[in-house]
């Protein structure tokens, strides 16, 4: 591959703005076409970002300069659109989750392998300087051997701000499949493969009300649990407890804490590309008045801050360099497998084995610069 690499979008809804802002600023890629089921929406985004070609999804798939398709369709369409892009000979970057079931998603990996193309899967926030700084700190041993993690994301839910929130409470979403990929992908990047999971789920409300936009006041059904609690065991011996909720009046998001034999590390919000990384050492003693206040040791963030599209950029550079890309289809499938196993556990009331595995995921080089031309 020689750059800039041609990129086409299928799906130009709400999330396309952040992708377009970044991918139009990375010298190694060039956005050449936008497509949507509503071509007028693709046209509006094309005019906004100075992209000459726009139209339907088929217009993107047949565009001769498109080498990578960015799949920003709704979750229920992810697998179908990705499969069509592979059949057209395109590499694919797909928003999370990679699919909604194991069978069709595993088929995508086989199709891509047979076609000689790659699949990259969001989230790529884990490749940002925030989590990568923490990952390198763990690899240096600043907290000794990692033992267990605690994560939390809880608030009232996306119906607070989204004008069409029904799909976020439908099959393929809810807090587990919509927000869970950020936290679970972070844990997989830090700990490796998960082996089993137990979960509990509940629906705070059977119906929700649209609060903003032209449909404000209308109701929609809640199809999946709006609160999930997970216990996850990892192959290397670590454990994690995770809360994901759209039912909490108390907003508490971005909590990721890794506890080790020699300290506890706090990480940035895994939905963000940067943030605070700091740790505490174990106390030497506890006095009669209880534990003393612990001193936080701050770790300076390393790396260039970018945004969504970073994983796609790592993928195209990896193709050129002949190496594995980090936010791969295999990682995306394993994260999906964990989440589906959690759903099954909540339904059955027992631990469920996670069958898939991932290999080691390399840390990002400190000098990885999205704004440099390398291709």
Automatic annotation (TrEMBL):
<dbReference type="InterPro" id="IPR055170">
    <property type="entry name" value="GFO_IDH_MocA-like_dom"/>
</dbReference>
<dbReference type="GO" id="GO:0016491">
    <property type="term" value="F:oxidoreductase activity"/>
</dbReference>
<keyword id="KW-0520">NAD</keyword>
<feature type="domain" description="Gfo/Idh/MocA-like oxidoreductase N-terminal">
    <location>
        <begin position="5"/>
        <end position="121"/>
    </location>
</feature>
<dbReference type="InterPro" id="IPR036291">
    <property type="entry name" value="NAD(P)-bd_dom_sf"/>
</dbReference>
<dbReference type="InterPro" id="IPR050463">
    <property type="entry name" value="Gfo/Idh/MocA_oxidrdct_glycsds"/>
</dbReference>
<keyword id="KW-0560">Oxidoreductase</keyword>
<protein>
    <submittedName>
        <fullName>Gfo/Idh/MocA family oxidoreductase</fullName>
    </submittedName>
</protein>
<dbReference type="InterPro" id="IPR000683">
    <property type="entry name" value="Gfo/Idh/MocA-like_OxRdtase_N"/>
</dbReference>
<dbReference type="Pfam" id="PF22725">
    <property type="entry name" value="GFO_IDH_MocA_C3"/>
</dbReference>
<dbReference type="GO" id="GO:0000166">
    <property type="term" value="F:nucleotide binding"/>
</dbReference>
<feature type="domain" description="GFO/IDH/MocA-like oxidoreductase">
    <location>
        <begin position="132"/>
        <end position="265"/>
    </location>
</feature>
<dbReference type="Pfam" id="PF01408">
    <property type="entry name" value="GFO_IDH_MocA"/>
</dbReference>
């Amino acid at each position: 591959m020689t750059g800039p690499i041609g990129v086409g979008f299928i799906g130009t809804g709400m999330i396309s703005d952040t992708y377009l802002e970044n991918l139009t600023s990375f010298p190694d890629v060039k956005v050449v076409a936008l497509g949507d089921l509503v071509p007028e929406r693709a046209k509006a985004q094309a005019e906004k970002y100075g992209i000459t070609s726009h139209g339907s999804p088929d217009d993107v798939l047949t565009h001769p300069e498109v080498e990578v398709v960015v799949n920003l369709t709704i979750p229920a369409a992810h697998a179908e659109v990705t499969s069509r892009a592979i059949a057209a000979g395109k590499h694919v970057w797909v928003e999370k989750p990679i699919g909604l079931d194991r069978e069709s998603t595993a088929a995508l990996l086989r199709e891509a392998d047979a076609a000689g193309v790659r699949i990259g899967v969001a989230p790529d926030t884990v490749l940002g300087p925030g989590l990568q700084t923490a990952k390198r700190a763990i690899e240096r041993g600043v907290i000794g051997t990692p033992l267990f993690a605690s994560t939390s994301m809880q608030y009232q839910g996306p119906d607070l701000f989204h004008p069409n929130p029904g799909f976020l409470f439908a099959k393929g979403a809810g807090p587990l499949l919509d927000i869970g990929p950020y936290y679970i992908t972070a844990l997989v990047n830090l700990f490796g493969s998960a082996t089993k999971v137990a979960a509990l789920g509940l629906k705070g409300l059977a119906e929700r009300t649209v609060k903003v936009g032209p449909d404000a006041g209308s109701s929609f059904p809640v199809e999946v649990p709006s609160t999930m609690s997970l216990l996850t065991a990892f192959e290397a011996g670590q454990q994690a407890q995770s809360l994901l909720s759209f039912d909490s009046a108390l907003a508490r998001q971005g909590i990721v804490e890794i506890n080790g034999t020699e300290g506890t590390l706090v990480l940035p919000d895994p939905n963000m590309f940067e943030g605070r990384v700091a740790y505490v050492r174990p106390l030497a003693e506890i006095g009669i008045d209880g534990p003393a206040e612990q001193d936080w040791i701050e770790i300076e963030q390393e790396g260039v801050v970018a945004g969504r599209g970073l994983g796609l950029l790592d993928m195209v550079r990896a193709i050129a360099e002949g190496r594995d890309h980090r936010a791969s289809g295999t990682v995306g499938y394993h994260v999906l497998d964990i989440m589906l196993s959690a759903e099954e556990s909540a339904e059955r009331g027992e631990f469920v084995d996670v069958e898939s595995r991932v290999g080691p995921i390399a840390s990002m080089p400190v000098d990885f610069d999205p704004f440099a031309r390398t291709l």
